[in-house]
């Protein structure tokens, strides 16, 4: 059973959020919410007493207490949890094989894996390592390095293995591929790891200097993966990356990308 006062209080916070720093008076908020001014005035007094809104000249705006609450929430959320939540909330990716990975030297390390519902069995699982040179998540992360760093890191041919006939093993060809990733904004592996599988990935933007870089990826059956499907996958992965980078947005925005 809902509590009307709580619902109205949350709607007040939503109005002030939408005001983008501008103040709103009690009369204006009551008008927008369609409630009596006296009722809303009492709610605002209670919210003000708790510090979640602040009275200023001309009305109210959001209070500092929300920063403390938001910080407490963020401390309970890590990228792995955000990844699984985004997989669950994003219709397109819910049925697909997805990965969350970090770069470790010339490999990628899988921190999380979502199995999806397709009748496809992959060897990737939590803790698995794959060559960064041929994986989409690896390429997405390598795009953050400059060409000189790539040449130094992948100088040894052993760091550029061929898992399939489509695997790119030449150093200069690898660098050209990573340049394409930078220009395109997402990474693409067409059968370099598993024949008949197209890997797609995007990097997760770091929120702090020196923060560990992450990438999110999806593995799709090549036979079904036309340009339209790839675009949908990239849009969904990009939405997931935004939510992992900023989990305060979970449940909002474009997390529910459609198929």
Description of the structure:
The chain has 259 residues and is α+β, with helices and mostly antiparallel strands. It folds into 2 domains: 69 residues, Arc Repressor Mutant, subunit A (Orthogonal Bundle), CATH 1.10.10.10; 173 residues, 2-Layer Sandwich (Beta-Lactamase), CATH 3.30.450.40. The chain contains 10 helices and 8 strands. The chain has a 6-stranded antiparallel β-sheet with strand order 5-4-3-8-7-6. The longest helix is centred in the last third of the chain and has 19 residues. The chain is elongated.
Question: Which short descriptors sum up this protein?
Answer:
alpha+beta; Arc Repressor Mutant, subunit A; 2 domains; six-stranded antiparallel β-sheet; 10 helices; 8 strands; 42% helix; disordered C terminus; DNA-binding transcription factor activity; DNA binding; transcription regulation; transcription; HTH_MetabolicPath_Reg
What is the first-to-last residue Cα distance? 34 Å
Q: Choose one word for the global shape.
A: elongated
| Beta-strand percentage range | 15-25%
Could you tell me the CATH topology label of the largest domain: Beta-Lactamase
Counting structural domains, the number is: 2
Q: Secondary-structure element order, as H and E?
A: HHHEEHHHEEEHHHEEEH
User: What's the CATH architecture of the largest domain?
Assistant: 2-Layer Sandwich
Strands, total number:
8
Strand order of the largest sheet: 5-4-3-8-7-6
Ranges with pLDDT <50 over ≥5 residues?
A: 250-259
What is the H level of CATH, i.e. the homologous superfamily of the largest domain? GAF domain
Number of helices: 10
CATH class term of the largest domain: Alpha Beta
Structural class: alpha+beta
Helix content: 40-55%
Please tell me how large the radius of gyration is. 23 Å
Domain IclR-ED: 65-250
Protein name: HTH-type transcriptional repressor AllR
GO molecular function: DNA binding; DNA-binding transcription factor activity
Organism: Kushneria indalinina DSM 14324
């Amino acid at each position: 059973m809902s509590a009307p006062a709580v619902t109205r209080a949350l709607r007040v916070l939503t109005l002030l959020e939408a005001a983008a720093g501008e103040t709103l008076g009690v009369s204006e908020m009551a008008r927008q919410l369609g409630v009596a001014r006296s009722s809303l005035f009492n709610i605002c007094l209670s919210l003000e007493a708790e510090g979640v809104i602040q009275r200023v000249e001309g009305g109210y705006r959001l209070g500092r207490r929300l920063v403390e609450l938001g910080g407490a929430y963020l401390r309970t959320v890590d990228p792995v949890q955000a990844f699984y939540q985004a997989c669950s909330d994003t219709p397109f990716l819910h049925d697909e094989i997805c990965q969350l990975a970090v770069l470790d030297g010339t490999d990628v390390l899988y921190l999380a894996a979502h199995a999806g519902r397709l009748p496809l069995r992959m060897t990737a699982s939590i803790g698995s390592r794959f060559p960064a040179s041929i994986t989409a998540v690896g390429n997405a992360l390598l795009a953050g390095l400059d060409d000189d760093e790539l040449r130094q890191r992948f100088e040894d041919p052993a760091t550029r293995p061929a898992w399939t006939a489509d695997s790119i093993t030449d150093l200069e060809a690898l660098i050209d591929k990573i340049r394409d990733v930078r220009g395109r904004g997402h990474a693409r592996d067409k059968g370099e790891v598993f024949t008949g599988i197209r890997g797609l990935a995007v990097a997760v933007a770091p929120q702090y200097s020196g923060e560990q870089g992450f990438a999110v990826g999806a593995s799709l059956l090549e036979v079904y993966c036309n340009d339209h499907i790839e675009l949908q996958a990239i849009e969904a992965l990009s939405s997931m990356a935004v939510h992992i980078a900023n989990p305060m947005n979970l449940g909002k925005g474009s997390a529910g990308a459609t198929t």
